[in-house]
Amino acid sequence: MSVIERPQIRFTQLFIDNEFRKSINNKKFPTINPSTGDVIAEIEEADKDDVDQAVSAAQKAVELGSEWRTMDASQRGRLLHKLADLMERDADYIATLDTLENGLTITDTRHSLKFGVELIRYYAGWPDKLHGKTIPADGNVTTITRLEPKGVCAIIIPWNAPVVMLSKTIGPALAAGNTVIVKPAEQTSLSALYIASLTKEAGFPTGVFNVVCGYGPITGAALSEHMDVDKITFTGSTSVGKLIQQASGKSNLKSVTLELGGKSPLVIFDDADIDEAVNLAHFAVFVCNGQVCCAGSRTFVQEGIYDQFVKRSVELSAARVVGDPFNTNTVQGPQVNAQQLNKIIELIDSGVKEGAKLETGGKRIGNRGYFVEPTVFSNVSDDMRIAKEEIFGPVQQIIKFKTMDEVIRRSNNTIYGLGSGIVTKSLDNVLTYSQAVKAGTVWVNCYFVVTPQTPIGGYKMSGFGREFGENALYEYIEEKTITIRVDNKNS
Ligand code: NAI
Ligand code: MG
C-alpha cells in the first residue's frame, strides 16, 4: 500500500495561440476536490469573447498556406508521436491531476493515461496513409478524390475519463490536419491544460491546439453555436447531445459527432462459468466508480443460476475498498460532484420505493466528499427507473430472464444502444444475440475491451458517428471529388 502525493497545479489559464491567457472578462470558476468538497484552484473562465479568439486562432492556423496546412503529413505524424512521448514522460503527474479533480483512483487514472498515449500513437501512424481514390467514372473524365481536413473542430468532453476523452478526439482530428478547440468539463480542466503545454513543447504550430475552460451553457454553447466552427464532437449526456445538435441546426449546420449515454445490457446464460461471469459483471458496472458510458448496468442473468449469481455479486460488492483515491489500495473513490452523488442516491431510493430488493449498500458514506456505498439490487423489473435511466454510479441491477427471445426483446427495450455483452459457451447464443442486439458494441465473454483500433459508438439515443479506429478519422475529413475532362483521342 502507498499513498501518492497530491500534485502541484501549474496551469489554470486558457490556452489560445500557444500561450496561456487570462479570460478577457477576468472571470474565474472553482474546481472542487470531490474527496473533500474543498476548492483546488480557480480556473479562468472563457465566455463568448474568449471563444471568438480561440476560433480565430484555430481558423488562421488551418488556412491554406499555413504552416500546419503545408506541413508534410508524415511530419504531422511525428508531432503526434512527440506529444505521446511527452504524455508518457509525465503520465504519473497527469494522472494525479485527474485523480485530484474527478476522484478516480490513481490506479484508474494511470491506466487512462496509458490508454490515452496508445490512442495518440495509433493516430500518429495515420496522416501519411490517408488518401483518396481514382475512380473510373463514366464519360471522358478522370476522377480523383482528395481527403481534406474539415477545418476548426470543437471538442466538448466530459469529466469521467478526461485524458481518454481528449485523446480519442484530438488524435484523429489532428491526424487529419484539422485544428482543435477543446472544452474540458468544468469539473476537470487541469489535465487538458497541462497537455496543452505539452503540445507547445512538442512543436505544434501556433493555433493548432487550443483549450477554453468553463461551463457548458456558456463556453460550450458559444462553441456549438459558432458560425466559424466547422465540426463539433461531443461526449456526455443525451440531453446535452440534443442541444448540440440543435445548436448546429440553428447556426451553420456544422457536422456533429455524438457519443452519449447508455444503459447497456450484459447477459449471462446458465452455461457460463459462474465465477468468471460474476467477476465480469461486477467489473462491467463498478469500474471507474461506475461512471462509464458503456457500463454494463443491466445485468441479465438466466434463471437457473440467478440466486447463486446474486449471492456472489453481493459478496464482491461488499468487499470493495472505498476511500482516498490517492491510496493504491483503494478501488473506488468519490463520485465526481454533489450533483452526481444526489442523482445516484435519488435513483437508489427510487429502486427501493419501486420494489427492487436492495441486497447491499444504498447509502452515502460519511458527510465529507461524495462517496457512495457499492450497491446491488436484485428482483429488478424493466419498468423501474433503475432499469431504465443511466445512473452513472456504483449501482448494479441484477435482472432475471428465461429465454433468448425474451432477453433480446428486453435488452433492446431502451432508448439507448451503446454497449452490450453476453457470457455463454454456446456459439449459437453468441451469433443469435450479437446479431439481434441494437448496440454499437457487443462484447462476448469479455467486457470493456476497448482498443485504439476498434470502433465505438451508439445506436439510437446513444449518439451517432464512430470513434476510435480508422472510422474516427472520417468524422474529421471532407472528401472532395475532382473530375477532370480528358481528350479521349489518345486513351
Ligand atoms: P453534461 O453532458 O452536462 O457534460 C458534458 C460536457 O458538456 C461538459 O463539458 C459540459 O460543460 C458540457 N455542456 C453542458 N451543457 C452544455 C451546453 N448547453 N452546451 C454545450 N456544452 C455543454 O454531463 P453532466 O451534467 O456532467 O452529467 C450528467 C449525466 O450525464 C451523468 O449523470 C451521466 O448520466 C451522463 N454523462 C455521460 C457521459 C458519457 O460518457 N456518455 C459523461 C458524462 C456524463
Ligand atoms: Mg450537465
Model description:
The protein folds into two domains: 270 residues, Aldehyde Dehydrogenase, Chain A, domain 1 (3-Layer(aba) Sandwich), CATH 3.40.605; 180 residues, Aldehyde Dehydrogenase, Chain A, domain 2. Strand 7, helix 6 and strand 8 form a beta-alpha-beta unit. It is globular. The strands form seven sheets. A seven-stranded mixed beta sheet has the order 14-17-18-13-12-19-20, sandwiched between helices. The protein has 491 residues and is α/β, with parallel strands linked by helices. Helix 3 packs across helix 7 and helix 10 packs across helix 11. The model has no long low-confidence stretch (mean pLDDT 97). The structure holds 1,4-dihydronicotinamide adenine dinucleotide (NAI) and magnesium ion. 1,4-dihydronicotinamide adenine dinucleotide binds next to helix 8, helix 9 and helix 12.
Brief summary:
The protein is an alpha/beta fold and 491 residues long.
Which class of secondary structure composition applies to the elements? alpha/beta
> Which fold name is given in CATH as the topology of the largest domain?
Aldehyde Dehydrogenase, Chain A, domain 1
The CATH superfamily of the largest domain bears the name Aldehyde Dehydrogenase, Chain A, domain 1
| Rg (C-alpha, Å) | 24 Å
Could you give the count of β-strands?
24
Distance between the termini: 75 Å
Outline type: globular
Helix coverage percent of residues? Answer: 25-40%
Beta-strand proportion: 15-25%
What is the strand arrangement across the widest sheet? 14-17-18-13-12-19-20
Could you say which small molecules are bound to this protein? 1,4-dihydronicotinamide adenine dinucleotide, magnesium ion
Based on the coordinates given, report the CATH architecture of the largest domain: 3-Layer(aba) Sandwich
Low-confidence stretches: none
Any idea how many domains?
A: 2
Give the biggest sheet: 7 strands, mixed
